[in-house]
Amino acid sequence: MTVARTPLPRGLFADDALPLYERTAARLLDELRATGARTGDRLPSERALSARYGVSRVTLRAALAELEARGIVRPTSSRGWFVAELGAPAPAAAAPQVQGFADYAEVNGLTASSRVLSATVRPATVPEAEQLRIAPGADLFDLHRLRFLDDLVVVLEHNRLPLAVCPALAGTDFGKASLYATLRAADPPQLPRVADYSVEARHPTPRERELLETGDTMPMLVATQLTFNQEDRPIELTVQVYRGDRYRFRASITNQA
């Protein structure tokens, strides 16, 4: 089954399930509207906004980048951020972002951990380059991990990302760090917005049985995801092999007519 690349419908996640930067963007937009801000008004400094909302500068910049992508604020090279247009819908209400493994764990009060099996930079193959819209042979960050929730193994994950979107990927320890948090902290921020997502069931390979600690009869649910950023550019190609007893796929289906 293939899920079309469309924004997730409102109601699929509660507000507190959204990433912190997106909730911060919604709070800032609500405040701008409540105070009667107008096009051209200057926002407080990033330092002041970080203190006001109790978030880091990295989170605040990701929130501003989200509002910029929606045409609500705009930056200048030396004078900070300004209001561009307040007529656009609030980001938290319009299009929840793609949720990463660590985001899911945090929202549900679980402890996420990872064991890195390999992390390399290599040339992109022709099929990978076509999907990620990069040149064949361009630097690709290739990451294999086992992912755990509360110390229980859940998924074997293979991530591939163009190194150019976030050069810091190559020097980050993803046994501890969140991949999506690293992308959101990039300069410019890379905000996972929508994804092409497909799921299929199959028997595990011998290596998958060993790593995921399953027997011969346990089915695997294999999810393939191509994730796009706020500029509708592909930034991540991922294959996730889940234990069939520890994963459930849910989706909301709507009629747009």
Q: Can you tell me about this structure?
A:
This protein has 257 residues and is of the alpha+beta class. 26% of the residues lie in helices and 28% in strands. The strands form 2 sheets. The chain has a 7-stranded antiparallel β-sheet with strand order 1-7-8-9-6-5-4. The protein has a two-stranded antiparallel ribbon with strand order 2-3. Helix 1 (20-34) packs across helix 3 and helix 2 crosses helix 3 (57-69). The longest helix has 15 residues, at 20-34. The chain is elongated and about 65 Å long. Residues 1-15 and 88-96 have low confidence and may be disordered.
Keywords:
alpha+beta; Chorismate_lyase_/UTRA_dom_sf; 28% strand; single chain; GntR family transcriptional regulator; two-stranded antiparallel sheet; disordered N terminus; transcription; transcription regulation; 8 helices; 257 residues; WH_DNA-bd_sf
What spatial form do the alpha-carbon principal axes imply? elongated
What proportion of the residues form beta strands (DSSP E)?
Answer: 25-35%
Return the structural class.
alpha+beta
Radius of gyration: 19 Å
The number of E-state strands comes to 9
- In terms of quaternary structure, the protein is single chain
* Major sheet strand order: 1-7-8-9-6-5-4
Biggest sheet statistics: 7 strands, antiparallel
